[in-house]
Design brief:
4 domains; three-stranded mixed β-sheet; Helicase, Ruva Protein, domain 3; alpha/beta; five-stranded parallel β-sheet; Rossmann fold
């Protein structure tokens, strides 16, 4: 008794049965309805996504008399014969085994004959990129001047290997891999038709193994059905294809969260005892950290992950216990480790070292987060009875309080004149700061001006240094719009006058700049002035702020030093 594989048994007999590729099918059916089908088509895309199937359906549509103009019936003698490869007017050739020029010359000669039974002759050439240069040259002539009612349908996984002369004479369609949803729905339908119960976890693993290819998915399902007793579960898939169980990655996550390297090492022993490959496990670790990161960042997008619903819920709970920057660092290290393990002749040693590194991983804390934690701690300590303090919730040093003083670099003081100039117009720095975000050009020009307000006359004077004429002219050009912004911001109309200052007050302008756009160092100094706890921490560590451009490099995980190699912090006092 011969067995018909699922990929053959459930091959679409009509366009309506095709899964995915709607952009291809709609165009081809429209061409069939209008009678404007091209003589040459190139179907390019990954394996198992329907290229040859759609070529055969086109051949059926050209020869079927029972179906509509754009849809073969799939059941008549002609459609059945084409599906079985027995229709003389449809010739399917595998270019991988017919690469020579003589093969194409024979095809060219056959194209000259009239159809035997139908009204069209169709040549389907699979993996056309495998043809030799001479064969492509022989094919070129007939593509330029094809006989009437002769069609060429080419399929390839590597369109980049096809000569431009051939590509220019074909209409090209690019096929895509199927989505997880499309694959899942099709497999569920076929499993029901076969009377097999496939669990959700097993189905998710099959879809992952298929990597978007429906043919590969059906081949995997075929093998599972043969090995099952009517029920296909997650364990059967893992055992049959040597997959590392999802529980192993969940165990690793718990070991990392508990900072327990022994627990992680025992996991390696169990994997080897169960016959699992460490190379596959190392690759899966990278995917595990990626899944945790996706669940941490956007749980609403979790449906797109290669996870069963129960596993997704468990990983989501674990993801909440990780910090985002930690998952980013772990993912970076895991990808580096996999490359080394994949090439190594001693993968166990490298896997064990990697797992110990993950388990001893020290959490990354951004300075902004640290400041928030210290401010909350200071507020709790300042509140009566240990409760939360009201007001700002931070302690200030009387000798160093105030934003103006805080924004100065270390060792620098501000003159009373500069401080007064910066405060001439209430909320001026707030206005310029808002403009820097909404209109950077205007905001940066206004940073060069010192304001003064005549309350009685309702006049705002902006004094620019003599060497800032360009900035003054830019503001003058934007004056109508700027005047409206001033009125909206201060709640009343003001006359605006732009002047050139007789004498530049660089100290005052620098004070304005520090308030509006402080450097990282100045911002840190300001925070230290407002919070003694942070000031003591920064002083003890000798810390400097890391620029945004360099922060990525600083957040990369470095192997934790051995206990005997760790040196105590240097005493700066």
């Amino acid at each position: 008794m011969s067995y018909n594989a699922l990929a053959r048994k459930y091959r679409p007999a009509t366009f309506a049965e095709v899964v995915g590729q709607a952009h291809v099918i709609s165009t081809l059916r429209a061409a069939l309805r209008k009678g404007k089908l091209s003589h040459g088509y190139l179907f390019a895309g990954p394996r198992g996504c329907g290229k040859t199937t759609i070529a055969r359906l086109l051949a059926k549509a050209l020869s079927c008399e029972a179906g509509g103009p754009d849809e073969p019936c799939g059941e008549c003698e002609t459609c059945q014969a084409i599906a079985a490869g027995n229709w003389l007017d449809v010739l399917e050739i595998d270019a991988a085994s017919n690469t020579g020029v003589d093969n194409i010359r024979d095809l060219r000669d056959m194209a000259q004959y009239t159809p035997v039974r139908g009204t069209s002759r169709v040549f389907i050439i699979d993996e056309v990129h495998m043809l030799s240069k001479g064969a492509f040259n022989a094919l070129l002539k007939i593509l330029e001047e094809p006989p009437a009612r002769v069609f060429f349908f080419f399929a390839t996984t590597e369109p980049n290997k096809i000569p431009r002369t051939i590509l220019s004479r074909c209409q090209r369609f690019d096929f895509r891999l199927l989505t997880r949803g499309e694959l899942t729905a099709r497999l569920e339908t076929i499993a029901r038709a076969e009377g097999v119960d496939v669990t959700a976890g097993a189905l998710a693993l099959v879809v992952t193994l298929a990597e978007g290819s429906l043919r590969d998915a059906l081949s995997v399902l075929d093998q599972l059905i043969a090995a099952s007793d009517g029920v296909v579960d997650e364990k059967l898939v893992a055992d049959l294809f040597g997959l590392v169980p999802a529980a192993a990655y969940e165990e690793l996550n718990e070991a990392i969260l508990a900072h327990d390297p022994g627990r992680a090492l025992r996991l390696v022993d169990r994997l080897l005892a169960d016959g699992h490959g460490l190379d596959a496990f190392a690759q899966g670790v990278t995917g595990n950290f990626r899944n945790l990161l996706m669940l941490k960042l956007d749980p609403q997008q979790a449906g797109g992950l290669d996870l069963a619903p129960e596993q997704r819920d468990r990983l989501a709970e674990q993801a909440e216990r990780f910090a985002t920057q930690d998952l980013l660092a772990l993912l970076d290290r895991a990808s580096v480790h996999f490359e080394r393990i994949h090439r190594s002749t001693q993968p166990r040693i490298l896997v064990e070292a990697a797992l110990v590194e993950y388990a001893l991983f020290e959490s990354r804390v951004l300075l902004a987060d640290l400041v928030e934690r210290l401010e909350a701690l200071a507020g709790a300590r300042a509140a009566p009875g240990g409760g939360t303090a009201s007001g700002e919730g931070t302690r200030r040093s009387p000798a160093r309080s105030g934003d103006a003083a805080a924004s100065l670099p270390r060792g620098e003081t501000r003159s009373p004149r500069s401080a007064a100039a910066a405060d001439t117009v209430g909320r001026w720095t707030e206005l310029v700061g808002a403009l820097l975000k909404s209109d950077p050009r205007l905001g940066s020009c206004l940073m060069e001006a010192l304001p003064s307000l005549d309350e009685a006359r309702g006049r705002l004077t902006l004094a620019f240094p003599a060497d800032k004429d360009f900035q003054r002219e830019c503001v003058a050009q934007e004056l109508p719009r700027f005047r409206q912004r001033i009125g909206d911001f201060f709640g009343r109309a003001l006359a605006i006058e732009l002047v050139t200052a007789a004498q530049a007050d660089d100290g005052a302008r620098e004070a304005v700049r520090r308030r509006i756009a402080p450097t990282d160092r100045e911002a840190l100094d300001a925070a230290c002035v407002r919070d003694d706890l942070l000031a003591r921490l920064v002083g003890a560590l000798g810390a400097d702020p890391v620029p945004d451009a360099e922060r990525e490099a600083w957040t990369r995980v470095q192997p934790a030093p051995a206990a005997e190699d760790r040196t105590p912090p240097r005493d700066e006092t």
